């Protein structure tokens, strides 16, 4: 197939080496050389200058390389359109999620998505909100799922659901047996915090400001699980998403502390780069996220 030959030619040129091209294409080096030789014979022109260290293009090779790239691009576009016509979804999907979403929501959405669209190559990264935003901005991620509010001119940010945040404590904590707690009782407590850059940490800092809290002491952990384990061990209290502590609340491993006349809510948002292409795989994934939120 001409597309296969063009792919071999382009890979040799871009890698500047027959051996590396063969490794990337998962074929033997003699096979790569044969493809190039047959191509030169067919066109009646030398395409590549060979040397022990690298390869370079002849004038004829420059012309062919330009058109070969277009052939491969048009082929991929045609394949995409045909698959779309047949309702087949393929391609790569790179998803980034901040920790709360990545640990408690994303797995549920991906399980259904991957079952329904098994031909999509899905890559996931779970990190804090700042890292996810950076990944989307640099086109390292096709979509990001973040906690809290954000506003950037080069990004599309769309809230898809609301999250309840609650303060949790171990059973032995003096505040655990109270239903509604006056904000003054949260003064001079030991708090377990997430790291800077975390969406959860942003809302904890906001709570400190809103209630004008004085912190007796704090411990910082870089994951929700670390925060929960620290609270369960009696190290202090923490502000976490209800998603992160549902099972612990149901089994009484942790207790929810509600502040009188004060609730903490935040949006979960979808983040996309304004300049990035929107594939069919991405469109469907976003629709699955939005369906989950209903």
Automatic annotation (TrEMBL):
Give the organism the record lists: Peribacillus asahii
Source organism superkingdom: Bacteria
Which UniProt key words apply to this protein? DNA-binding, Transcription, Transcription regulation
Listed GO MF terms: DNA-binding transcription factor activity; transcription cis-regulatory region binding
In terms of Gene3D superfamilies, this protein maps to:
Periplasmic binding protein-like II (3.40.190.10), Winged helix-like DNA-binding domain superfamily/Winged helix DNA-binding domain (1.10.10.10)
Q: Which family does it belong to?
A: Belongs to the LysR transcriptional regulatory family.
Question: Would I find Transcription regulation among this entry's keywords?
Answer: yes
Identification of the protein by name: LysR family transcriptional regulator
Where in this chain does the record put each HTH lysR-type domain? 1-58
């Amino acid at each position: 197939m001409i597309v296969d030959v063009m792919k071999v030619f382009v890979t040799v040129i871009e890698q500047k080496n027959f051996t590396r091209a063969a490794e990337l294409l998962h074929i033997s080096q003699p096979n790569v050389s044969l493809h190039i030789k047959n191509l030169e014979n067919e066109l009646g022109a030398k395409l590549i200058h060979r040397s022990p260290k690298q390869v370079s293009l002849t004038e004829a090779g420059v012309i062919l390389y330009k058109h070969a790239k277009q052939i491969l691009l048009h082929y991929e576009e045609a394949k995409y359109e045909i698959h779309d016509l047949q309702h087949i979804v393929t391609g790569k999907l790179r998803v980034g999620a901040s920790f709360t979403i990545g640990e408690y929501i994303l797995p549920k959405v991906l399980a259904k998505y991957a079952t329904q669209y098994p031909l999509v190559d899905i890559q996931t990264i779970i990190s804090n909100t700042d890292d996810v935003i950076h990944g989307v901005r640099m086109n390292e991620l096709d979509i990001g799922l973040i906690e809290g509010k954000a506003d950037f001119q080069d990004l599309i940010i769309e809230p898809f659901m609301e999250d309840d945040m609650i303060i949790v404590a171990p059973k032995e904590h003096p505040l655990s047996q109270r239903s509604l707690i006056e904000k003054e009782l949260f003064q001079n407590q030991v708090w377990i915090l997430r790291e800077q850059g975390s969406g959860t940490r942003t809302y904890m800092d906001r709570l400190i400001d809103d209630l004008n809290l004085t912190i007796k002491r704090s411990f910082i952990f870089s994951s929700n699980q670390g925060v929960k384990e620290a609270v369960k061990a009696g190290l202090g209290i923490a502000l976490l998403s209800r998603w992160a502590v549902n099972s612990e609340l149901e089994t009484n491993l942790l207790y929810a502390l509600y502040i009188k006349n004060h609730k903490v809510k935040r949006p979960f948002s979808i983040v996309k780069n304004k300049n990035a292409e929107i594939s069919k795989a991405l469109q469907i994934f976003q629709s699955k996220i939005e369906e989950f939120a209903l």
